[in-house]
Each structure stands twice: as C-alpha cells, then as structure tokens.
Amino acid sequence: MSDQIAALKEQLEETSEALKDMESRYSCLTVKQILTNRELQDARKESISGLNDVLTSRTTLVVKRMGEIDQKAFEVASSRKFPNKDWQETCAKLCSLWQQNVQDPKWHPFKMINIRGNLQEIVDEDDQKLKELRNEYGDVVYEAVSTALMEMNEYNASGRYAVI
Description:
It comes from Gossypium raimondii (Peruvian cotton). With 164 residues, the protein is mostly helical. 66% of the residues lie in helices and 7% in strands.
C-alpha cells in the first residue's frame, strides 16, 4: 500500500512539474506573441508614415482590409434578386450580416485537407450557412465570403477582425 502511495506521489510530482513547465511555456509564447504583434503594428505605422513622405497629391493608393467582404459581389446579387425593391438597403444589411458572421469566432467553417503531405485549412463547402448563402445569392457572393474567411484565417485568426 505504501509503495502505491509513494508511486502516486512521485507521479503527481512529475505531472505537477510538467504542468508548471507547460504554463511557463504558454506564458512565454503569449508574451512573445504580444511583442511580435506590437512590433508588426509599429512597422505598419512606420511604413504608412514613410509612404506619406513618398506619395504626392496625385498618387492614388488603395488599401485592402484583409478579411473584409467585397461589397460589390453583394451589390450585383442584390440588384438581380430585388430589382424592384430598394436593393441597396437590402445589400447593406446582407453585407453587414455576413461581415459579422465572418468575424464570429464561434463560427469555424473550415476543414483540414492533406495536400502533398501538408495539412491545409480550407473553407468547408459543406457548411450549412455557406450552402444556404450559395443557393440563395450565387457563387459570386459565396466566393466573396469564402475569400474574406480565408483572409481572416490567414492574417488574423486569433482576433477575427479585418486588418489592413
């Protein structure tokens, strides 16, 4: 009996040490992620500041927010689906709704596939919300939402908000 207790105590101590080690690693990784994010934001601000010095008043610069839905796809689909109604208002509401869906961290319409030995995450075409969207508004709107989802997942998976 005392041998079992001693073995359990030893196992508990090992598990406790392993847990402390994992917590320490997690803390280090969290701090590193925060510092890296700050460094990235500082570099972004510096780049924008540098561009302001280089650009003239005639220069046109377009900034794409990664993870933001392309509203033009919704405009085309809404004008076709609601030609007699106020399609612009419907389009704005629909686009806002889907932008909220894309930003919802609880919704994860992705699946993992194996491509040449590498696991990659892609948009799950069998996701119920996406199926309904494609059936009701067509492939162009579906592709706009899928693109926004992939951008969001690639550029800001942890925050689920659009980034420049």
